[in-house]
Amino acid sequence: MAVTVQRHDDIAVVSMDNPPVNALGFALRSGLMHALTELRGAEGLKAIVLAGTPRAFSGGADITEFGKPMQEPNLRVVITAIEDMDIPVVAAIHGVALGGGLELALGCHARVAWASARLGLPEVKLGLLPGAGGTQRLPRVVGVEKALSMIVTGNPIGGKEAAEIGLVDALLDGAYPDAAVAWARGVAAGRRVRDREEKLQPARDDAGLIDRLAAPLLKASGAAAPKACVEAVRNATTMTFDDGAKAERHLFEQLVAGDESRAHRHAFFAEREAQKAKLPAGTVARKIERAAVIGAGTMGGGIAMCFANAGIPVTVIETEQAPLDRGLGRVGELYEGSAKRGSITADQARDRRSLIEGTIDIEAVRHADIVIEAVFEEMSVKRSVFERLDRIAKPGAILATNTSYLDIDQIAAVTSRPADVLGMHFFSPANVMRLLEIVRGSQTSPEVIATASELGKKLGKVSVVVGNCFGFVGNRILSKRTDAAERLLLDGASPQEVDKALTDFGFRMGPFAMADLAGLDIGMRIRKAFGKRAPVADAITDAGRYGQKTGKGYYIYEGRQSTPDPEVDAIIEAEAAKLGIKRRKIGQHEIIERLVYPMINEAARILDEGIADRPGDIDAIWLHGYNWPAWRGGPMFYANLVGLPTVRDKLTQFAAATGDKSLEPAPLLLRLADSGQGFGNGPQ
Ligand code: T1G
């Protein structure tokens, strides 16, 4: 039963139990209505405690129900029924109360929470806004300023802060929900939240307040949902509760039917699906209680922080003391910075830093359950490290390489235990970026994959298992975009036009600004290592323009400030002339098509080769590793939205126009487009 009722003398506890997170699907909604009807007018009842499970009061509306006909009662009806109960209803919040879950609690006459609870309205992260009265009730409880920030950012707050701002009436500890039953005995008949107006007054007295508060919150996003959130909260200050709730509903229905929210919902489930590695039943992961990282460079230091942040002791190993001290020094500074910014406490910073040791003695790896190599990106260097690890590391230790594109099998081949070798490709900065590509070699055992996948979750990563090929999934697709960007310059676009097209599309940075940040000499070294040429990029790099680090690259830099450089236009003109390419004006739409469709094409090859298990995996990789805008769902979702026949036809055109055979539509793309299908179960 999703909902049960238990009497504790004059208090009734209504418990919700719809695993895993008490999503408010039909079963819970109808169960709640049934319980309320049963308890209305019940003899000797003083109050009702509405409780969830220790993990979740409620994770909100059931997202899987969106886009389908709604089964009644809907959530608004349930919340109104609670609000209109003849005795006080107290929400007892332990774990998460998110979205519709917090709206349910706001329908109650009082709320209590445990300090570890997380409360929020994250609907905007699904391209939506709170659709069950949250935009009308939250400002009435916490005031317009706090409500706007919680609703427009979608970021949850902790139980302690919720008590400080009056979102909950008391902070409890002890057994759940028993402590709430005791508290409810003392509760006075509560006022319905909908009837509270006093906290709306400041906005009613100051017509410009909402816009002033909203401006900084809306700055970063071109998406529709944040704007709708502001509109709905504004309505709370200018309309009656019922009219504001009606307007909220209208805005919600517009958003839930739109591509933006469909993209976000796809991204939500793709991220979770992608982390389910396809493994033989009964595969058991190994225990990871101690780690070692080879290399104290930027990546090595960041990876070590991931382990320390998860409470796993880690030893960082370098060849000499100076680079070790530099690396650990940087780690220390990063922790101090986080403590200064308040994202962690000073105690947490100290405790985490203390879990990271350093040594120049590679023998130290013998105690580790997993060793992650993060040394210079060159095959011979990596192979010599793995030869040594093979001799020293204990039996059963996992040997992982953080290479971003080298062949895992070639690295594993120098060891006597290739089944224990795999790729664990972190993204820079490793302690920040959420993506982890877990690369299975041809001999990597399922047990080792399972261990890495579980560890990735523990490190707070979105861990996606992929096959072994040049650049794995993310970088292999990125290289197609890089090639396309280079070709666009030759054909007539400028670096700033290409970058603007991509930032308008939703990326935080365009390919040329990104290349300048990463360093053009790095790109050149990789191209040279694989005998690849890029006329414009090579010419700019040969001119000693390595990007931000030399103050000149595709742009000129004053600090971080970049401006276009006519010298670069001249270099591009010259390279195009050498190749006999007649340059022309290229519009933004064509720029986007020529950057994105080759990515989709390569992704189709990757799926066909089994390098990625699901189209959603590719979307999760680009969403969490390459800043693909969430409101566009990922390259595969976007391909389905555009329509595969369009992608096929455009690629055919581009291949003919440039003579570049790699742009010809991939077999899977042709098959799906010709048969009117899309990738996976995205929108057709
Ligand atoms: N609906 C359906 N399924 C959900 C769900 C939800 N709201 N939340 C989680 N799941 C599934 C998830 O797919 C996974 O399934 C399993 O539960 C565990 O999730 C009217 C419009 C709650 C913090 O945005 O942020 O309310 O993969 O792996 O890391 O205004 O899930 O096991 O098959 O993420 O412990 C608003 C979404 C909805 C919160 C738990 N709510 N969920 O994190 O576990 S819109 C949200 C989360 C709404 C109203 C509106 C997290 C979590 P599976 P998990 P976790």
List keywords for this structure.
single chain; 684 residues; alpha/beta; six-stranded mixed β-sheet; binds (2S,3S)-3-hydroxy-2-methylbutanoyl-COA
Fold blueprint:
Layout: E1 3-8, E2 11-16, H1 26-39, E3 47-51, E4 56-58, H2 75-83, E5 89-93, E6 96-98, H3 100-107, E7 110-114, E8 118-120, H4 134-142, H5 144-153, E9 157-158, H6 159-164, E10 170-172, H7 178-185, H8 201-205, H9 209-218, H10 224-238, H11 241-256, H12 259-274, E11 291-294, H13 298-309, E12 314-317, H14 321-341, H15 346-354, E13 356-359, E14 370-373, H16 379-392, E15 398-401, H17 408-412, E16 421-426, E17 435-440, H18 446-458, E18 462-466, H19 474-491, H20 495-505, H21 511-518, H22 520-529, H23 535-542, E19 555-558, E20 561-564, H24 566-578, H25 588-608, H26 615-625, H27 635-642, H28 644-658, H29 667-674
Parallel strand pairs: 2-3, 3-5, 4-6, 5-7, 6-8, 7-10, 11-12, 11-14, 12-13, 14-15, 15-16, 17-18
Antiparallel strand pairs: 1-2, 8-9, 16-17, 19-20
The structure holds (2S,3S)-3-hydroxy-2-methylbutanoyl-COA.
